Structure formats: C-alpha cells, structure tokens
Amino acid sequence: MGGHSSTFQRLRTGIGLVAGSMLVGAVVAGPLASADQASAHASDTGRDTAAELINKPYAPGTVNIDASALASGGGTVKVVSNPDAGFTSASVTASTEGDLVDVVGTRTKPVAASSMVNTFTVDVANGDSDTSTSALTAEATSSDGISTVSATLKASDASGTVRSITDQVWATDFDGVTLVSETGEQDLRLQKVSHLESAGTVDAPTATALRRKIQGATGSTMAAAAAPCADVCVSGTIEWTDSAGGTHPVPFAPVQIRDDETPPLGVDSELVTTVTTGLDGTYSATVDNDDGPGQGNRDVFVRVLAAGEDFSVGGQFIESPVQSEVPSGTELTVDLTANNTDDNNTAFSLQNAMYLGTQYLDTRVPGGLRFLDVVYPDPEGSFYDGEDLHVLSLDRFDWDVMLHEYGHFVANQLDIENNPGGDHSSADNLSVSRESKEIGVPLAFGEGWPTYFAVSLLQIQGAADLGVPNAGDSKYQDTEDQVITDDLEEGGTLGEDNEFTVMSVLWDLYDTPEDGLDKVALGDKVVFDRLVAGGEDDPGTLSDAYRLIGLGGAGDVNPVSCVFSGQNVAPRLADPKVTSVGKDDKIPTFTWDAGNGGDFPNDSFVVELRDATGNKLIESSEPLDDTNYKPSAAQWLSALRKSDGTLRVAVVGTQTAEPVTGPYRSCMTDIDVKPIADAGGPYSGTTAKAVSLDASVSVVPGGTIASYEWDFDGDGTYDQTTTKSTTTNVYSEPFDGKIKVRITAGAPTMKSSRLALAKEGDTDVAEADVKIVSAPPPSTSTPPSTSNPPSSNNNPPSSNNNPPSSNNNPPSSNNNPPSDNGPVATAAPRPVVKPVVVPVAKPVAVTPLPLARTGTGPLGLLLAAAGLLLGGLALQTVRRRRRT
C-alpha cells in the first residue's frame, strides 16, 4: 500500500539474509530462469521507491524499531512513532514473545502529535551453555529459542475507532552473541549459520548444507515400497498450514525430483524432473535410476517451490530428506506439509493466495500478465514498487493485504489508475490530508480499487470454501502487524477522495446483496471490463469510473447512481414526502445532500424532471449553487403531462474545483402522476345553438381514458358520458358559469414492476368558463319594393288613332237621403292592385329590303304602302293591350 516515508533506513543485521538470498537464488534459478528473464525485461511505470509505500491503509501512522543497540549488547531499543494528522490519544507499547527477551520497566508510553522517539529497555537472556559443534549446528537450524520484540502504535481516529500498527524484530542469544533480524525468523537462523562459519566452527560446505536445510526444512513423511515400476516412481501430497493450524493442499506448485550428488549431504544436487501439483496438492513422477558411472542408484529427494506459472514467492521452498540409493522398481511416497511458523513454510500461504489471484486474472485478461517476483519476507513492508511485489513477514496469512498489493501490479499493468503514491489513510479525505484535490482524488481511487479487487476475487474464487481464516468474505482484514476488520458491505460516506468509500462503491456495484440504495449486482466482470475498456481514457479517479460503468440512459443506469448516492459521492435527494401528485396538488420543493465531503463537496447542481423510463429529459433547472429547488408551474405541469405515469426526479452534482470531477447523478425519486383532466375553454355561444366542448388535452400518463363525464351547468350532476374527448350542448337559456369534465382512467398502456402507473378507475375533474347569451329575435319589417326598370325611350311614338274615350258612363246619383248627423255610409274602396309591370320588348330590327337600283316600279310602291299600313295597325294593337 502507499504510505509514509521511512523515518530512517531499516537495518538488516548480519550477513545471513544476504547469504541466504544468494543461496535461494542459486537453488531456484534453474527451473524459473526463463520466467525471471522475462520479468527482468518487463517495463513498468510504478512508484519509484519502496520508502514511499511503507504505511498501510487504516494505520494511524508509522512505528519503527531501531534494534541496533540491542544487537550490539546495549539492551535497549529505540521506537520511532509518527502518528498521522487527525489521530488523537496516541501511545506506543513495547512487548515481547518468547523465553529469551523481556521488556524491563514501562511498557506503554504516550506519543506526541508529531514524530517522537521512545526508548525501551529489553533484557536478553543467555541461551544454552552447550557450545559443542553438534549442539550449535542443531541449534542453528532450529527456530527454538527465537523471540520477538514488538512495538505497537495505537491512536483514535475522528470517529473514536482505535487503530494500530505494529513493527517487530526477531532476537536470540546464540553462542554468546545477541542476534537480531528485522526480516524474520528464517533470516535469524541463517545468521546463526553465518556466525558459525565466520567463527570457524563449521566449514563452508557444511555451512551451505545447513543453509539449505534451513531454507527447505519442513514437516515430511517418506515411505518406500516395491512397486511395478521399472525405474523409480515418486508421488505424494503437498500441504500448507494456516494461522489456525488447519492444513490445505498446495495448488499447482512446481515439484522438483532431485538427486543429491555430493558429500556432505545437501551441498549440491541434480534436477532430474519437474512436475506440478494438482488442485488437490497431489503429484506423481517417474524418473530413471541412472546416477552416473560408478554412482549406484539415485539419492532422491523432493523439493517444492513456493511458486506458480506466473509468479515466485521469495524463491522460497520446502524439501524432503534424501532417500539414498533407491532401488529400481520402488514406489517412493513423499508427503510434505509446510508449517505455519518458518518463513519458507509460510510462503506457501502466499503461494495459494497468488495462485487464486493469477487464476482469476486469467479469466479477465486473456493470456494473463507478465511474471511477477514476490519478495518475501521484506522488512520494509508490503507494497508494489513498480517491478516486484514485497510482502512483510507479518502479512504471511493476510490474503487481503497480499492481493491488495497484487492489485497494484494489475492496475499498473492495465493502466487503470494514476496513483501519485505517498501518505494515505482510509479514514481521511485525502484531498485534505494531502492538501491537494489533484493528489487526493486519484490517490483514493488508486488505493481503493486494489482493495476491492482483492476482496472480491477471493469471494469469486471460492476462498471461503477452502476454510482459510479471514478469506473469501466481504471484509478487508489485517491480523498481525495490524488488527483490522473493515467490512466493505458497510460502505463509506466521505466521498470520492476517500479510499474506503471508493472500495465500498465498487463492492456495492459488484455484489449480490441489496441493502439501502444498493439495488444492483453488476458482477465483477462488468465492473472489471468497463474499467479496463477505458483504454486511453483510463479511470484515474472514481469520477472516471462512474462514467465508464454507468453506460446507457440515465434511467437504465439509475441503480448505479443509487450506489453513488448511498455512499455520499453523488447528491442524495431528501424524501419529498410526495408519493403521487396531480395537477391541482402543491408543487413540491426538492432538497438534497450535496455529496462528496471534506473541503470539496459537490457545489454545482442541475435538477432534472424525467419520464417514467428515466431516459427522457422533460424539464431541467438552470445550474444551481444551492441545495433546494422548486419547479415553476409551467415546468411542473409540462413534466406531469409527459411523464408517462411516473415522474422521475434527479439531481446532477459536479465538484467544480480543479480538476473538475463529476457530474454524478443522484438516485432518482419516483412520483406517481395522477390522471390530468382538462376541460378546454373558455367557451361562449348563444341560446338554442350547439356549443362544441373539447377535453382532448386531458391525459392519463402511462394509461388510457375510459370515459368523459360532462356537467354542463356545474351543478355537480354529470349530464352526459362519452368515450370521446369532444361533445356539444345546446343551452336553452343564457348561462354564465362553469362546466366540468370528469375523466376516468382505463387500462395502462405500459406494464412495469418498477414504475407506479395510473390505476384503472382513477379519476380527475377539470372545469372551464362558459358564457351563453340570448339569441337575437327574428326580423318583422317589409322588405323594400323592387323599383321598375326605367322605361325605354325606344318605344315607337304613340298613335293618335286611338278611339275617343266613351262618355256614356251613367252619371253619379244624387238621390241619397240627407244626413242626420250620423255617419254617412260610403261604398267600400276597392283594393289597390299593383300594376303588373310588363317589360317592353325591344323592337326587332327589320332590315329594309334593298331597293332596285333600276328604280321603283308601281308594284313596288304598292307593296311598300301596304307594309306601312300593316305596321301601323300592329303598333296600335299593342298600345291598346297596354291600356287594358
């Protein structure tokens, strides 16, 4: 994990570690040479130095034991403690385990807020007094008599949780000398051998044999029996022991069948063949029995490497004793069980963890990644330095820690992080503690993703079924140098620049259990593939991851957004206390928590009103810097009408400080939309004439309208029911008031188990103004008479040949009696008869006959006179008819 720089360089006491490492390299180089060469040439862009990566997440700071004074016989150790900012009540405690060392005096001392050195007195007892060569060589290869000195820094974080971190050294008194190792017990035993060699107690070949015994020592059983095997058949089972004492098969580890070559026994050997254990830890091999001219039969032993196809753990191995002069036709059964104390044995715990990690990666990255060397044990801590993976001795059983560091390697190789490295703690907003958002946000993602990767892959690979303590659950656990149990299922709340929040968000996107706002289970493949598929647009921050994982419409990815809201990264809408709404209901005011924390909460927001799918944006606010918003009446009604039954409300939040992160969309709030009646109008008209009424703007969002009921006079009684949205009504009297229309919802047009649609039978009422006035009375006046056309002046002149008027009418009678002052009776007047106007026909033009040019004869003149006479008579007849 990334972390604090060392206060001072750790000391590797003695030459045992160096000599031992050289031997391990020589022993293992043969079978792994090609892989090592590939590793050596692999390019990497990781962190520059291990010193940047010593601190672990969750640790309250750093603690470091300087045991140089103890090694020189001074009887004291210096403990340098450096609590992180934000932690309080810090103290450091010195403790010992074993019979040969003990803390004298005060064991716990307070630590100031800054780096502080405390000194503790440690008493180292003398070892066995037997100084014979045989006794010393036996003691050198044994872990008996090795004790530990530990220093533990404890402090409380802001929540009051006590965090701790421990440093440890191994010490013993051997042949009158105090030996101390900061690496592990194996290194201390190798130091014993180096001491014997430098003192001349043993020669170089014997020292080499002793070192090989230390490096390969383990529990073993060996049995030889005659078998139908032409040569030598070797088989057995390889197991390792966990922290609780349970045993497990060593999966797919290289098993070397070797032939011991030279006296003294164990100095040199020949690799005869290599096979691999199966998933159940079993192996079998057949080797020839040719030990060379004059050498007799083979001297067989088995060596098992803490390695896999894609990795090697510290060059560590375990091996069996030598079975000398094995006759042909022998079935040799060799079972080995790695213990849970010696470093070369506990390396097989890490081998199993790495096997699971590389197997998982093979399912996600075709062909896997390059070969990886694991340096174990490394006193500097557990970290990935850009080339190799380093594991602290006290992380031997902490698979979460081991695979977190492997996650750094994977992220680096796949370019799915942009981790700046340096100090970090899961309890901090790293933008605050590192005084830079530009550092804090990518650092949180760069540390949070590897933890998610480790915990999830162990669950996916079925580690819980193996019965290995603390493996395969939802927790990140560190058990020896720290005591940490953090459950990713519980979630974080500090925001995008907090590594625990990052790992918890990714976990909730992956996992199956649904709780709170976590209603999604994308699975590890989707999460992994979408992050890796970013290509050049790789996810250096949680903001990038949100964009890559949340592919699709806003409604489709709402479950993803809900996880981000639940972990306080995206805004979180408060409950508007409204489950359904109609057009006449009060428009709610929406409020929300901003999301993100520390000094960089989200600070720019847009409220979205979306349709029932969530994928269609209907209305939205302008950018806001406040955390409440009330839509306008026009926006609200528009959104209700277009909602398709459910109005989905979301808030999109952005953190605008450079580098800008987001936007993050909140988990949507769903509001059921009731039917919306609209009576149209206003209407006007006259009595006795049909008025057209139109309610076609009415809508049942997400449903249908089964009926329209019409109340034409607003008296509450519905006068007509139609299935169409229009109708007419004739008012017999003037009316100035309201009409009402009541709509009833029919069957929904869409089905959804998630959306709340209008129910069949739901109703809504709307009204509109109507004004009806009296119709005007019909007209009773006589229409004006039509004027005669003007007389034509083309009539022929009147004839004077009309007969004279007759004077033969009888004279009026004067014989009436005289008046008696009473009314005088008079004759009733005749009705006036309008003259019939007969249109005068236009005279027909008569073309005169042409006269002969030769003159007019008597006959012609006679005919002309007759024509004139007849014409005159005809004209006179016409005039008489007019007078009558």
What does this structure look like?
This protein is an alpha+beta fold and 884 residues long. It is 23% helix and 27% strand. The protein has 15 helices and 39 strands. Strand 8 and strand 9 form a beta hairpin. Helix 6 crosses helix 7. The longest helix is centred in the first third of the chain and has 26 residues.
Q: CATH topology of the domain at 219-399, anyone?
A: Immunoglobulin-like
Distance between the termini: 136 Å
> What about the largest sheet?
7 strands, mixed
Helix tally equals: 15
Helix content: 10-25%
In the CATH hierarchy, what is the architecture of the domain at 219-399 at level 2? Sandwich
Spans of at least 5 consecutive residues whose pLDDT stays below 50 are 1-54, 786-856, 878-884
Q: Given the C-alpha coordinates, what overall shape results? A: elongated
CATH C-level of the domain at 219-399: Mainly Beta
Structural class: alpha+beta
The Rg value, from CA coordinates, equals: 55 Å
Q: CATH superfamily membership of the domain at 219-399, which one?
A: Carboxypeptidase-like, regulatory domain
Strand percentage lies at: 25-35%
Strand order of the largest sheet: 14-13-16-17-19-21-20
> Quick check: average pLDDT?
82
User: How many E strands?
Assistant: 39
InterPro entries: Ig-like_fold, PKD_dom, PKD_dom_sf
GO biological process, one term: carbohydrate metabolic process
Transmembrane segments: 859-878
Organism: Candidatus Neomicrothrix parvicella RN1
